[in-house]
Amino acid sequence: MTDGDFFQRAYNIVRQVPKGRVATYGQVARMMGEPRKARYVGFAMHSSPGMKGGVPCHRIVFADGSLAPGFAFGGADEQQRMLEAEGVGFLPNGKVDLRQYLWEA
Asked: Residue ranges of the Methylated-DNA-[protein]-cysteine S-methyltransferase DNA binding domain (predicted)?
């Protein structure tokens, strides 16, 4: 399997995350049958074509609901802005409220 194959598989799952919901890097990895490759899913999201390519990578967050500090399209502030625009709520500590907004595939 090449990096491109892995990345495309990750993108295909991330494309399924509905507006107003988030998934975690580990969740995407588990759905791919690669439960130990959450970090690699992060590499895929960082390299993604973003919304222009139909990959809503801004909907992928860490397991504790925190945002990626190096979000590829403008930093964590931009990721939060994009999620809030879709109706995703945040806790006072700045993390996504996963109890309410985690996607359950």
From this structure: 5-88
Q: How many C-beta atoms surround the C-beta of residue 36 within 10 A?
A: 9
Q: State which H helix or E strand residue 80 sits in.
A: helix 76-85
Within 10 A of 22 (CB to CB), how many other CB atoms are there? 23
Catalytic residue from among 57, 67, 83, 88: 57
The pLDDT score that the predictor gives to residue 49 is 77
How many angstroms separate the CA atoms of 58 and 45, rounded?
A: 8
Q: Which CATH architecture has domain 3-101?
A: Orthogonal Bundle (1.10)
Give the 3-state secondary structure of 35-51.
CCCHHHHHHHHHCCCHH
What residues does each domain of the chain span? Answer: 3-101
- Phi then psi for residue 100, to 5 deg, are -100, -30
Model confidence at 83: pLDDT above 70: yes
